[in-house]
């Protein structure tokens, strides 16, 4: 593969049209309608077509106004949102309170077919228009998450409920074509924001990682964001036609520990595993330094981040002492026999398997024998949800709201028959964390809320229900003709609006 890249860098066999930006992603897109988005890329593309009342793509991850010009808290359970007067859908019709009410009423309906309905029904009791450009949200209970909750795309509803696939939004682009091979978007002439620099976007769906790189090198694509084999990036750094850029991200790569496992239920064993992993060495060797050490769910640039937590820096003697104290003494000292054996499940992605093997080797240095078991992602993820694993590694979705501490660590979110998709897949229980994370989602004072999450981060860091590894930087590969693309921490695609070709 490296030789193929070297050869391709020497000749540029194609050039994309001047009026079109061509992006390559690793999976297909099923819908640009936010109501029916199934995948991460469905959601990302939907924001280009149908932005929400606010958006969360700033460096500090604080919500900024989008279709809204003002958000007012009338009471702890009532919020008013005022819409901008110049927002128009791609068909030229104005964005009104009736459209927003129609959108949320669809999501709140008991027979709604949207995957997001349950979450909204738990939050909002009713949404009504109090003026042509004013929407009033009624909440079941005070929620500090309201501003991030309304980061959800709005599609036209004033002329009735649109069918699935009829996405008329107010974003910088409108959908022209969606097939199994690509999505084509064209400029929305009615967009209220900065006029998109190029008139047409084509997003091609290419599953093969090597093929995606060859498309950039050969000139048949302009951009790849993150969908890259990291072990091949170094081959591109010195190539004259390809740019490599990095930006911080809100995605956490972490090691899952099954807290109900007979070995891992002892906090000393979890702490010892954390101490045995040399994370800086892995970042240097496998990520070329393009990742930041993690201390918890939140990245350092987040407004609620707490730096003063226990740090499990690489310390083999201390890890061995903790294992001894937990009753897992080394049976033969420096000999080959392990203290115990454990399995480590991961996806079958070659790069992730390679990283897992490095972690396994490091755990071997303190006498923990690790068997790495790669699985196709669907099988792997099903096992994680069922709790049929000991160690596993995954990456989170975008962590923009500290309320993720509630869904990740509150005991009510442990997967069960009633809640099979619960996020607390490590089966962590802590009564104080349960209480604090509930307080955090209901506390409306930002300073008090930050104090609450500071406590939560300190407790979770000590208990080590999971091991935060690193926040991998967002990676952008582009041809040298592309300028103006901004990498957002959540890797959304709004950068396509401001990108152009020289």
Helix content: 25-40%
Distance between the termini: 29 Å
Please mark out the parts with pLDDT under 50 across 5 or more consecutive residues, or reply none: none
How is the biggest beta sheet arranged?
A: 7 strands, mixed
> What is the structural class?
alpha+beta
Strands of the widest sheet, in order across it, are 8-9-10-1-11-19-12
> What is the C-alpha radius of gyration, as a whole number of Å?
24 Å
Which shape, going by the Cα principal axes? globular
What's the rounded overall pLDDT mean?
A: 91
Number of helices: 15
Strand proportion, as a percent range, falls in 15-25%
Can you count the beta strands?
21
Word description of this protein:
This protein is α+β, with helices and mostly antiparallel strands. Helix content is 29%, strand content 22%. The radius of gyration is 24 Å and the shape is globular.
In short:
By secondary structure, this protein is α+β, with helices and mostly antiparallel strands. The chain contains 15 helices and 21 strands.
Task: Please write out the topology.
Layout: H1 2-9, E1 20-25, H2 40-49, E2 54-55, E3 64-65, E4 68-75, E5 78-83, H3 97-108, H4 117-123, E6 124-131, E7 134-139, H5 146-149, E8 173-178, E9 182-187, E10 200-205, H6 209-218, E11 223-225, E12 242-247, E13 253-257, H7 267-276, H8 279-286, E14 291-293, H9 316-325, E15 340-347, H10 350-364, E16 368-375, H11 377-386, E17 391-395, H12 404-409, H13 431-442, H14 446-463, E18 466-472, E19 474-479, E20 482-483, H15 495-498, E21 500-501
Parallel strand pairs: 1-10, 1-11, 15-16, 15-17
Antiparallel strand pairs: 2-3, 4-5, 5-7, 6-7, 8-9, 9-10, 11-19, 12-19, 13-17, 13-18, 14-18, 20-21
Helix pairs in contact: 1-6, 3-4, 7-9, 13-14
